[in-house]
Amino acid sequence: MIVAFSVTPLGVGEDVGEYVADAVRVVRESGLPNRTDAMFTSIEGEWDEVMDVVRRAVAAVEQRAPRVSLVLKADLRPGVTDGLTSKVETVERHLAG
User: How many distinct structural domains can be found in the chain?
Assistant: First the structure.
């Protein structure tokens, strides 16, 4: 499964990069395949391990922010691995063709 999620601290002002970095650090330390862009962090693995990482990433932000917003989108597709890479490669192949 692939989960794309965004954790946003609320009530801490406009500059939230250091808070978001706390969440991304949890994801990267998990050892699961992941990718971060300007809007979301995507992580790939089994349901329980991915959801545990999301929970811990939110908890990391909760430690310093009075309120936290979580946006989450999941692609549950049994038997697919390396979807973070293969999905993008498929689109790029079509663009090149």
Answer: 1
